[in-house]
Amino acid sequence: MRPWSLQSRLLLVVAAALVAFLGLTGFALDQAFRESALTALRDRLQSYVWAYIAGSDPTVSRRLVLPEVAPEPRFDQPGSGLYAGITGEELRWESASALARDLPFEGELAPGEMSFQGPLPSPVGEIYLLSYGVVWELADQDELRLTIHIAEHASGLRGQVVVFRQTLWFYLGAAGVMLLVLMLLMFRWGLSPLRRVQIELARIEDGTAQRLSDRYPRELKGLTESVNDFIVTEREHLVRYRNTLGDLAHSLKTPLAVMRTRLEASAEGPCAGEQEELLAQVRRMDEIVAYQLSRAATSGHQTFAAPLAIEPAAEEIVRSLEKVYASRGVICEFEIDPKARFHGERGDLLELMGNLLENAFKWARGRVLLSVSRVDLPGGRRPGLEMAVEDDGPGIPEDRIADVLKRGVRGDERVEGHGIGMAIVQDILRAYRGSLDVGRSGALGGARFLVRMP
To answer: CA nearest 234: which of 209, 206, 203, 211?
Structure first.
């Protein structure tokens, strides 16, 4: 699995925290509203009790005269969901809405005692029931004890809770989405300097920029300055390294040239055999020095190398080779992607293409084909390069391909002809983390050298 980006990680953590916070907030508000609605229902039922007490009068015959107008019109509407009942000594009364409903208006409470229950099952469905015990003093110190029952169907409370929940979760959800969008914008703005670093590093790799800019927050200032110092140090080190190699080449080649000249001048003396052997060893030392310097001069893979166009370098090499092999009439054709670029030193590119093309010109009968294409890599990485050199010569037998590639791998091996060239090619490819495949050309019928570079 691909690792998550910083923005995705932060957004996931914030989303989880936001969902947990909004969920707990919604649950708390839902419970608070339900308790509040339940309290309001109890207070409303209790107000109906007070209304019945205030509007009723007991008689001497222990009867109770109820108010002519009910406290709420629904008490007079059958099946309205609001019910009233009074029970006591040889007395049972129910409102018109409660007639034939068989509601649980039972039990007697002591004077001043109140009971609130619900939701309770009943023939009409779940109800909330408030009961209150009262006592009226009659003549001759007689008392009339009654219990007033007020009930309401639970659907009213449930409807309020459902509407509140729908409204609550709609607005909480909308707020959550808005907060997530706001957080996403904040993260994008907060992480934009990191994305700018990535973009500027890609431009440096492509050669369109030389260094990172200075417009970064102080948290990234140390990082960007260190990267700039690294880029400058890498380039300065490469220049010093190549200058040192050039000085070394001059320092070694001059004494060797003097020794070879002296030995060649005195090769006819009395010790001609020993001098000839010394001359051969000096020549071999000269070849080894040239080979090792060519290997060491290869700069290799560089992260911040400037891109080089392929076609100008190829034209320069082919012009020279066509003059050298003019008598054979060899023609080189190009199939070069204009977007293809070589990220490295120009000398390495010339050395790589020069050796491959020279080998093709040497064995071709009349045609050489150079094909170069750009290779796009996933993850926004710098594009790679694929280069093929083909000829119409005799080709290389399959059983000899491995031997051809083995020659020149050892840096101290003395090789003749194109051997040192193939050794340099392989050394350059190893330095640039590339690969070389040798086979037969499907287009021209000769050898085909395919180079792939990341």
So the answer is: 211
